[in-house]
Amino acid sequence: MKTLETLTFDNRFARLGDGFSAHVLPEPIDNPRLVVASPAAMTLLDLDPAQAETALFAEIFGGHKLWAETEPRAMVYSGHQFGHYNPQLGDGRGLLLGEVYNEAGEHWDLHLKGAGQTPFSRMGDGRAVLRSSIREFLASEALHALGIPTTRALCVIGSDTPVWREKQERAAMVLRLAPSHVRFGHFEYFYYTKKPELHAALAEHVLNLHFAECREQPEPYLAMYREIVERNAELIAKWQAYGFCHGVMNTDNMSILGITFDFGPFAFLDDFDANFICNHSDDQGRYSFSNQVPIGQWNLSALAQALTPFISVDALRETLGLYLPLYQAHYLDLMRRRLGLTCAEEDDQKLLERLLQLMQNSGVDYSLFFRRLGDQAPDQAIATLRDDFVDLKGFDAWGEQYVARVNREGPVDQDQRRARMHAVNPLYVLRNYLAQKAIDAAESGDYDEVRRLHTVLSKPFEEQPGMDSYAERPPEWGKHLEISCSS
Ligand code: AMP
Ligand code: MG
């Protein structure tokens, strides 16, 4: 285990040079203090979790001190926001401090969000508020624990620095970790600004560092695009299966690695609602829960456009065509598991669709339904869950089909079935109201609740003694929280 002083850096992205990023120093926040740290994320850097308690930790991640080997850079990129091309985005409030490499030989980008203004800040103040930093931290670590690919979060550092949003708030910084911070929007930037040399250098950098196995293929860039399509199909299948709504799927928020990236007004579904819009500013519902699937394809086609200098249009088109079938296969596979089914039958899709329709019309809690379905033997579970549905006749018919479907797989040992289902059906999810309670306490200076919630969510499938209240449906006040885009 290492201390902060002994981390080793190898800043490969910074070495690409000034065409890719600008050198900017972090602007410190006042009276920096640890709000929460993730021991699991710290071990990715071989960093001893006890280091989080040191004064140096809050000083570094509050922007006061830096390692001599870091080269803080603000990256330039562009992207399609709500379907419209924005030619100039970039890190407006985050800095890539450098890349740490661990003993396993992995590189991790250290990205400090809320680090002050950069050449890409446009009208923004370069800051992040405490509430959005806590939300990003909790979501990254919770998604990871659910098995959903995501950027990680090392810590949140709070401060006394005032920041103006709708009201006065306090600035915070979140330290994000990822193997790469390259977004779809990076490729779009060099494509649309017509900088072929830099564009080619970016493609080579990403291929060599992050898709090395594709170099063995006859067409390495095509193989890389295919891998990106596959990873995104799988990622979005996981979002849909676990009721995660990202909220701002602009191409500048899409990672080239196919991991969940840039958390804003995200939400996990409480009641199942295919049309749920978690982003209060998304009037058209472009990024509604069910639209995430076609938007994934839209974003991959925007990326394909930016890759046309390297890959033929026909090959790109054909590869993009793999997205939907791959998505559907992953999604159905995950949902079969959530239903406790162990083999595939042709009508499973219909069985699932009918269930979601019934849930939609009755406002059934999405996560708890699957958890409870595994609690008891199928027929008993159905009898218990029945009370949550309005269309009783409809649900009874579904229940009969479901029990028959399970029985066709042969005799079931209920203990085994429960264990199998509970391993894929979380008891604890990051409900908006849980995050809000933790944020309210943190804003008044009490960080216990954020830390407790983080701990509970780091083992979402395991029942934890004394933590029943974290598995409950939202109270009335917590059902329709409006999460604004300002963060
Ligand atoms: P987001 O909606 O968080 O993905 O951000 C979109 C763009 O706005 C990115 O280029 C961000 O860096 C930039 N941005 C967001 N908030 C701020 C802020 N407070 N100050 C400067 N830039 C910001
Ligand atoms: Mg963003």
From TrEMBL:
Give its E.C. classification number: 2.7.7.-, 2.7.7.108
- List cofactor names only: Mg(2+); Mn(2+)
Q: Which reaction does it catalyse?
A: L-seryl-[protein] + UTP = O-(5'-uridylyl)-L-seryl-[protein] + diphosphate; L-tyrosyl-[protein] + ATP = O-(5'-adenylyl)-L-tyrosyl-[protein] + diphosphate; L-seryl-[protein] + ATP = 3-O-(5'-adenylyl)-L-seryl-[protein] + diphosphate; L-threonyl-[protein] + ATP = 3-O-(5'-adenylyl)-L-threonyl-[protein] + diphosphate
Annotated positions binding ATP = 90, 92-93, 113, 125-126, 176, 183, 262
Active-site positions on this chain:
252
GO MF, any single term: magnesium ion binding
Highest rank taxon of the organism: Bacteria
Keywords, ordered alphabetically: ATP-binding, Magnesium, Manganese, Metal-binding, Nucleotide-binding, Nucleotidyltransferase, Transferase
Sequence positions that bind Mg(2+): 253, 262
Does the record carry Manganese as a key word? yes
Under the heading PANTHER family, the entry gives: PROTEIN ADENYLYLTRANSFERASE SELO, MITOCHONDRIAL (PTHR32057)
Q: What does this protein do?
A: Nucleotidyltransferase involved in the post-translational modification of proteins. It can catalyze the addition of adenosine monophosphate (AMP) or uridine monophosphate (UMP) to a protein, resulting in modifications known as AMPylation and UMPylation.
Tell me its family.
Belongs to the SELO family.
UniProt-recorded name of the protein: Protein nucleotidyltransferase YdiU
Annotated source species: Pseudomonas thivervalensis
